[in-house]
Amino acid sequence: MLTLHGANAGAPKGMKRLLPYAEENGLILLAVASRERTWDVIYGGFGEDVAHVDAALAHVFERYAVDRRRLAVQGFSDGASYALSLGITNGDLFSHVIAFSAGFMSPGEAHGSPRVYTSHGTTDPILPIGSTSRKYVPRLERAGYDVTYTEFEGGHRTPRYVATEAVEWFLGERSD
Fold first, then answer.
1. What one-character-per-residue DSSP string does 15-38 give?
2. What's the pTM?
3. Are 107 and 81 in contact (CB under 8 A)?
4. b/e for 63-90, b at 16 or more Cβ within 10 A?
5. Is 133 within 8 Å of 109 (Cβ atoms)?
6. Separation CA 125–CA 56 (nearest Å)
7. Alpha helices (H) along the chain
8. What pLDDT does 103 receive?
9. Which range (7-11, 126-130, 156-160) has the least confidence?
């Protein structure tokens, strides 16, 4: 699972909410940092960050037994926006996208059809739900994506039960 941090947060923050589930469930978490204070698509398009993500994924694929049929991209806030954008663009690589409190999505040409889990707080003051999730979730559904959407009481955060739900959603898809 590729994990993406929010603005000004750094790579370790990207995997913080999922770290408690990794060892218990056999997840490999790959935390990648943006080249600038946030992800390149927010500045107008894919660029150096994609190259950095590609190199990091190649490094992991060379060293670990990764089931490439079950690869997720996950993020929070700006990282969630990037996860949606990257995951939809590369749906032939990523089977799942997990987006906690995303602000938008700006994919390139869509490939494949990853399943999407997204969540958002109803009182988020940073990325208000009415102008974010409640707009892009219907767009995803109209485009034919299988979307699981959770709204929760609260602000710009990921409650533990929402992180648990997302991991269970991802793991529940196992065929083994």
1. HHTTHHHHHHHTPPPEEE--SSSS
2. 0.94
3. no
4. eeeeeeebbbbbbbbbbbbbbbbbbbbb
5. no
6. 33
7. 11-16, 19-25, 48-63, 78-89, 133-142, 160-171
8. 95
9. 7-11
